[in-house]
Amino acid sequence: MTDIRFGVRIPNSGPLTSVPNMVKSAYAAEAMGFNSIWLHDHVVWSSEMHRHHISSGSAEALADEQTADFFEAL
């Protein structure tokens, strides 16, 4: 049987992003035992995209239909 492996996504865009933060996050993930790190492919986000992102703290970020469907399943 194959062992389960876990990874973590490190943000590469948005308000918390900087090269030092990305490097620090990668080292922290490695120290915590994660097997891999991933970066998303949206290298440029518009202010409109950020407004609807869950990290914005906006209630609108959780108000879309797909998110509601996801949480209903839980």
In short:
This protein has three helices and two strands; from the N terminus they run βαβαα. By secondary structure, it is mainly alpha-helical.
What report would you give on this structure?
The protein has 74 residues and is mainly alpha-helical. It has one domain (7-73). It has helices at 19-31, 47-52, 65-73; strands at 7-9, 36-38. A two-stranded parallel ribbon has the order 1-2. The longest helix is centred in the middle third of the chain and has 13 residues, at 19-31.
Largest sheet, spatial ordering of strands: 1-2
Biggest sheet character: 2 strands, parallel
Q: How many strands in all?
A: 2
Output the radius of gyration. 15 Å
Spans of at least 5 consecutive residues whose pLDDT stays below 50 are: none
Number of helices: 3
The chain-level mean pLDDT equals 73
**SSE run:** EHEHH
Tell me roughly what share of residues is in helical segments: 25-40%
Which structural class should the secondary elements be placed in? mainly alpha
How would you describe this structure in keywords?
single chain, two-stranded parallel sheet, 3 helices
